[in-house]
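User: quick one, sequence for these C-alpha cells?
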C-alpha cells in the first residue's frame, strides 16, 4: 500500500458556535480527540492543523501520536490550513505518496470508513477518492496522491479540497457517506447529533 499521511483540519474559530467546536464533548472525550483517535487507528503519519484557540485546544488533546501545526493565517480559511499541512508533509515525510484530508467535526466518520477509502485508493492510485454526501455533493474525507500536492499548495482563502474535486471531476471516485453528516455548523446540529449517538 502506498505511504499515506492524514491531515486533520481544525483551525477555524467556530464563529457560528460561540465556543470552540473542537472541544465539544463526544464519546467520553471531545470532537477533535475523537477524530485523532479514529485516525490513529488506521495510520501512523498524522498531522493536525490548529489556528484559533490554539493553546486551549492543544491543552485538551493528546499530542503524542500526531504532529500539531499552528496556522497563523487561519482566518484566511481552509485553503490556508491545507497549504500549511501539505507543506509540512512534503518536508517531513518525503516518502509519502498521498494525503487523506479530513475535518475535526465529522464524528460519524469511523476507522472502517477511512480504511475503505484507503483501500479504494490503493487500487486506484491516480484517482481522487472522496466522500459522497446528500444532493450528490462530494467532500472530505478525501485522498489525493502526490501528483495533486502542487494543486493543494495553490489553494487560497476558504477554497478547500472541494475545489480540486470539482476541477478534476473526471478523476474522482467516491465512497458513499450519505449517512455520515458532513459537518457540524451550529450548536443545534451538534445537540441533535449528540442525542442520536449517545
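Assistant:
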Amino acid at each position: 500500500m502506498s505511504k499515506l499521511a492524514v491531515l486533520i483540519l481544525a483551525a477555524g474559530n467556530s464563529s457560528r458556535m460561540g465556543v470552540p467546536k473542537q472541544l465539544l464533548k463526544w464519546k467520553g472525550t471531545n470532537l477533535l480527540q475523537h477524530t485523532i483517535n479514529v485516525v490513529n487507528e488506521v495510520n501512523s503519519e498524522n498531522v493536525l492543523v490548529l489556528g484559533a484557540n490554539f493553546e486551549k485546544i492543544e491543552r485538551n488533546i493528546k499530542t503524542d501520536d500526531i504532529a500539531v501545526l499552528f496556522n497563523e493565517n487561519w482566518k484566511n480559511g481552509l485553503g490556508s490550513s491545507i497549504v500549511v499541512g501539505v507543506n509540512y508533509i512534503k518536508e517531513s515525510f518525503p516518502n509519502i505518496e498521498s494525503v487523506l484530508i479530513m475535518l475535526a467535526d465529522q464524528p460519524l466518520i469511523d476507522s472502517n470508513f477511512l480504511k475503505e477509502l484507503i483501500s479504494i485508493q490503493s487500487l486506484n492510485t491516480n484517482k481522487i477518492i472522496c466522500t459522497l454526501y446528500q444532493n450528490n455533493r462530494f467532500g472530505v474525507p478525501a485522498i489525493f496522491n502526490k501528483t495533486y500536492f502542487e494543486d493543494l499548495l495553490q489553494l487560497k482563502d476558504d477554497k478547500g479540497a472541494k475545489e480540486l474535486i470539482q476541477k478534476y471531476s473526471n478523476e474522482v471516485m467516491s465512497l458513499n457517506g450519505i449517512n455520515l453528516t458532513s459537518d457540524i455548523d451550529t450548536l443545534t446540529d451538534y445537540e441533535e447529533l449528540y442525542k442520536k449517538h449517545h
